[in-house]
Amino acid sequence: MSEIIAADQLRLLIERIERLEEEKKGIADDIKDVYGEAKSTGFDVKTIRQIVRLRKMEKHHRDEAEMLLETYKQALGLV
Predict the structure, then answer these.
(1) How far apart are the first and last CA of the chain?
(2) What is the pLDDT along the chain (79 residues), one digit of tens a residue?
(3) Crossing angle of the two packed helices 2-40 and 45-56, in degrees rounded to 10
(4) Longest CA span, the chain
(5) Where are the alpha helices (DSSP H) in 1-79?
(6) Measured distance CA(27)–CA(32) in Å, rounded
(7) How many Cα atoms are found within 13 Å in the side-chain-facing hemisphere of 16?
(8) With a threshold of 0.70, does the pTM exceed it?
């Protein structure tokens, strides 16, 4: 009996994962569409992606990354 229950539970878990993967694909397509809309409006998509990545970071991590970038730019004479 427990083998049947385990098999049913496994099947349900796999089906949930499959549904979530489909939802994830749909969301990824939606995000791609929004970036396309931004591009067609004249925005630079590469810069928007950087901003999105920065906004995900905690402030102290973002400050540290920006400080390192500035240090490296100065070391290479880019400033």
Answers:
(1) 71
(2) 677 788 999 999 999 999 999 999 999 999 999 999 999 999 999 999 999 999 999 999 999 999 999 999 999 999 8
(3) 130
(4) 72
(5) 2-40, 45-56, 59-75
(6) 9
(7) 6
(8) yes
